[in-house]
Specification:
The complex is a heterodimer of chains A (306) and B (417). Chain A is mostly helical and 306 residues long. Chain A is built from 13 helices and four strands. Classes of the chains: A mainly alpha (306), B alpha/beta (417). Chain B: Part of a binding-protein-dependent transport system for a sugar.
């Protein structure tokens, strides 16, 4: 019987376009980058195989490793702010929006989602202007409520700059978790809610005991999207603080560190090999993060079939 | 008619090198702002004297220029004349054989050694671009505001601070318009502006390259100490103030003094549009009568594509670029970009005249970090941006900043080890 089975060519044919495109524009460059990180220029400017020497430099030479750990630490904080602020607010907004008594829900949904479709460049410049100590409306608004003393040039202070940028990014992207959770909440069948109400589970306890467990898988997906997005972030910092990620590298994240190294900056010539090394390290970090999620968290999430 | 021109352009590009009556030269440049000036002023002047040579100015965007030029040179499609960035970017092209050696060009005699240093090999044995222009650092001030407050432009450091104190006490103007958000302002308009006075210009710069001086020595730390004092005279929230913010503060008449580069002349004059009068003063000296030093930074030059089939015509153009006639045309069309030609150039812009007058009274030098010292990692120029901004914000002491720069430089630069 097995011998008479026709070869199912159509599977290969239908897969081919996606596989080819994905291989050309993703897999090959990815391995090209990993490969590039194993080479270096010798004294004569020739490309020579260097093994793991670039990684030894990146993690062993204090000049490189300090910059790397600083960027990684900043990245971790950037991610933490998103997890602690963006996602809870997104869930809260979704819960409010899915409440049947809310009027103009469509308007709020759209208004909150709009920043997400704006370009980083616009968001960066608009917020830089809002927060500008010279022309910005932030100092005037604080002044109007008598809190002028609270104003500081946040983007220029080492201790506040990164948090400020993280919050700007939260403002821009809060629409994404909101929409995903909102969709998840709408998909909860009315029967389940009604049954809960029959049992006397309403309002807050209904949210905690019925809705939240049902949307947990969505929250998991959002967390992993946030993680990947944040560790690949670059645009907002570059637009508002420049490639040197000032003040004093307080806003330097892996993306800007990679950019400076790979493409060079001002008088610094680009170093493709060290750049590829940093890119490989970033790839590793994201890979580990995603794996931890996939194998340790996602498999334990309980799913409910309706 | 249009088609004829297109055809002529096309054929001249394709048949370049063929024995045609007219040779067409193409200039690669990042100065797309200057396209009109080249097309309407400079090229017609050259073509009138050399009817057999036609010149096309073909600029690309400044940020893309280096990358575009490199790929064009590699592909063999670059123009005959190449606008040269100073120091390593051009030196690399010369070492790769993309730029021709112009040491024997007669017009080179019209330029001083300092002017040529940006486009020479490290030992100075070969020069590969004809210097075109430099930019000078100093301070631009609001003359109207100074008159209102009864102030005169300062000559010494003490006078400088007493002027700043007086403006601050009056309260109507921000004493100095500068921010640290973009970092390069702090390094370029502050450190490299007042620094040469303390490290004695070329003397200190060359000693640093030779390894005879260290960045932790007095001459290199003192400029940082001065920057630390500037903090009190900058506007509220200067930490988040960007370069365009500073420019606007000054052109709107809200700030009295602007630590400047001469290229601002061309930007400020139309923006202020007569609302107030501008003046300029050189970086102040420690005591009356001391030699003053200015940063007269070589910024732009013109070189010859080694693969150009029209090398002879291109050399004719380069020879003309080195002439006083070109210098006069260029310096007047672009006030603030000063000719590097040894022959003094008549300029009509009064502010530009102020700036260029310091060349005769002060010792010129170039930015200390540009030649050789920014070749390694960590990059001295980029570190200087960061250190200058930190010192002005008061988050790093001048001594600590100098110490950090020195150890960074010593980590890769042999003579400093």
């Amino acid at each position: 019987m097995a011998a008479g089975r026709p070869v199912r060519w159509h599977i290969a044919v239908f897969l081919a376009p996606a596989v080819l495109v994905y291989t050309t524009i993703m897999i090959i460059p990815l391995f090209g980058t990993l490969n590039l990180s194993l080479f270096t220029f010798d004294a004569a400017g020739q490309r020579v195989f260097a093994g793991l020497a670039n990684f030894r430099t990146l993690f062993g030479d204090p000049r490189w490793s300090d910059a790397f750990w600083n960027a990684l630490g900043n990245n971790a904080w950037f991610f933490l702010v998103h997890m602690l602020v963006q996602n809870p607010i997104g869930i809260a907004l979704a819960a409010l929006l899915s409440s049947p008594r809310l009027r103009m829900a469509a308007f709020y949904r759209t208004a909150i989602f709009i920043p997400t479709i704006l370009s980083f460049v616009i968001v960066g410049f608009v917020w830089k202007l809002i927060l500008s100590p010279i022309w910005g409306i932030a100092p005037d608004m604080l002044d109007a409520v008598g809190l002028k003393a609270l104003f500081a040039p946040w983007l220029g202070k080492e201790e506040y700059a990164l948090t400020t940028l993280a919050l700007i990014s939260v403002w821009q992207f809060v629409g994404i978790p909101m929409m995903l959770i909102y969709a998840a909440m709408l998909s909860i069948p009315d029967e389940v809610i009604e049954a809960a109400e029959m049992d006397g589970v309403t309002a807050w306890s209904q949210f905690w005991k019925i809705k939240l467990p049902l949307i947990l898988p969505s929250i998991g997906i959002i967390s992993i999207l946030t993680f990947v997005g944040n560790f690949n972030a670059f645009d907002l910092i570059y637009v508002s603080q420049g490639a040197l990620a000032g003040p004093n590298f307080a806003t330097d994240i892996l993306g800007t560190f990679l950019y400076r190294t790979f493409f060079g900056f001002q008088l610094q010539l680009g170093d493709p090999h060290m750049g590829a090394t940093i890119a490989t390290a970033m790839f590793g970090i994201i890979l580990v993060g995603v794996s931890v999620y996939l194998f340790a968290i996602q498999t334990r999430l309980r799913r409910y079939q309706f | 008619m249009k088609r004829t021109i297109q055809f002529a352009l096309l054929s001249s590009t394709m048949l370049a090198g063929a024995a045609t009556a007219q040779t067409t030269l193409t200039i690669e440049s990042w100065r797309n702002d200057d396209l009109q000036i080249w097309q309407q002023t400079i090229i017609p002047a050259f073509e009138a004297a050399h009817p057999d040579i036609k010149v096309v100015f073909s600029p690309s965007a400044p940020a893309e220029y280096n990358a575009v030029l490199n790929s064009k040179l590699d592909a063999g499609s670059a123009g005959d004349l190449i606008t040269c960035r100073p120091f390593d970017a051009s030196l690399e092209l010369f070492n790769k054989g993309s730029l021709a050696d112009l040491t024997d060009l007669p017009a080179m005699a019209n330029f001083s050694d300092v002017a040529k240093s940006a486009w020479q090999t490290d030992d100075g044995s070969a020069t590969f671009c004809v210097p075109m222009a430099s930019v000078i650092h100093g301070f631009i001030y609001n003359k109207t505001a100074f008159e209102e407050l009864g102030l005169t432009p300062p000559k010494t450091v003490d006078e400088f601070y007493s002027v700043l104190d007086a403006i601050k006490a009056d309260g109507n103007y921000i004493p100095m318009a500068m921010g640290t958000a973009d970092q390069w302002e702090a390094a370029t308009m502050a450190y490299q502006n007042i620094g040469p006075t303390y490290w004695k210009g070329e003397e200190g710069r060359r000693a640093l390259i030779a390894g005879e001086q260290k960045l932790t020595e007095e001459g290199w730390v003192e400029p940082f100490r001065q920057l630390a004092r500037w903090k009190d005279y900058l506007g509220d929230g200067f930490e988040a103030q960007t370069y365009p913010d500073s420019q606007n503060l000054f052109t709107l008449g809200r700030a009295a003094i602007y630590p400047a580069g001469s290229w601002e002349i061309g930007v400020f004059t139309p923006q202020i549009d007569g609302a107030f009068e501008m003046g300029a003063f050189a970086p102040p000296v420690a005591a009356e009568g001391d030699t003053c030093y200015i940063s007269d930074h070589t910024d732009i030059a013109l070189g010859l594509n080694a693969a150009s089939p029209n090398a002879e015509a291109a050399r004719t153009f380069l020879e003309w670029t080195g002439s006083p006639e070109f210098a006069t045309l260029y310096a007047n069309a672009l006030p603030g970009f000063f000719s590097l030609n040894s022959t003094p150039v008549e300029m009509t812009d009064p502010l530009a005249q102020d700036f260029v007058s310091w060349r005769s009274s002060c010792e010129p030098t170039i930015r200390s970090t540009y030649q050789i010292l920014s070749r390694g990692t960590p990059n001295l120029e980029n570190e200087t941006w960061n250190a200058s901004a930190n010192v002005i914000r008061g988050t790093e002491t001048p001594e600590a900043a100098a110490e950090r720069l020195q150890s960074g430089l010593a980590s890769w630069y042999e003579p400093q080890k």
